Amino acid sequence: MDTTSAPTTSLPPLKVAVILGSNREGRFGPVVADWFLGRAGRYEEVETELVDVGAARLPDALSFSPGPEEAARVGAVSGRLAAADAFVVVTPEYNHSFPAPLKNLIDWHYTEWQAKPVAFVSYGGRSGGLRAVEQLRQVFAELHAVSVRETVSFHHAHALFDGDGNHRDPAEADGAVKALLDQLVWWGEALREARNRRPYGG
Asked: Where does the NADPH-dependent FMN reductase-like domain lie (predicted)?
């Protein structure tokens, strides 16, 4: 009887673009994004890259023919989004919605989002940014992206982190990150395989 085990196929890490969606002066987003990136770095299944709307400086006016400088800035972001297998959007909640620069980044792109999963890490006051997340789910559905159910949300976020960016009581948040990443990896790998077999036609 042949007891030789069949070789296991190791899938390449899922390329996850973590999008920091606020550029407001004094923003708290980098604290949340850095914390999440640190947690995601513990998972061999994912490979993360930060896309910061503040650093991207995309043009405010959408155009089919932007000038050379504007086109270069858009192209630099477009390539990173196109290369991603999945996305995690880090967003605050401003006036019951999500930031305008985040919508601007989303609207500059289309095919880059298609047939890929999107997860959300939100922060804010009492609502923890969840109203922004619910609106973003509708936006990404229109772009043929799949939003995963699990989220990570920080209610009264400023009080949850110390001056070094460490969560004061991380056990529950760590569990939420694991649930989010487990779902994101499942959808990411399934959709990556599907796109490789048959390009998504919209």
From this structure: 15-158
Residue 61 backbone class (left: φ over 0; alpha: ψ -120 to 50; beta: rest): beta
Rg (CA), the chain: 18
pLDDT tens column, 71-123 = 999 999 999 999 999 999 999 999 999 999 999 999 999 999 999 999 999 99
- Could you give the CA distance from residue 120 to residue 148 in angstroms, rounded to a whole number? 8
The Cα–Cα gap between 94 and 18 comes to 20
Q: Would you state the structure tokens that stand for residue 141, as one six-digit string?
A: 């559905």
pTM comes to 0.93
Q: Report the C-alpha gap between 136 and 97 in whole angstroms.
A: 9
**How far is the CA of 126 from the CAs of 32, 68, 123, in angstroms?**
16, 43, 9
Q: Is 163 exposed, middle or buried (0-12, 13-18, 19+ CB in 10 A)?
A: exposed
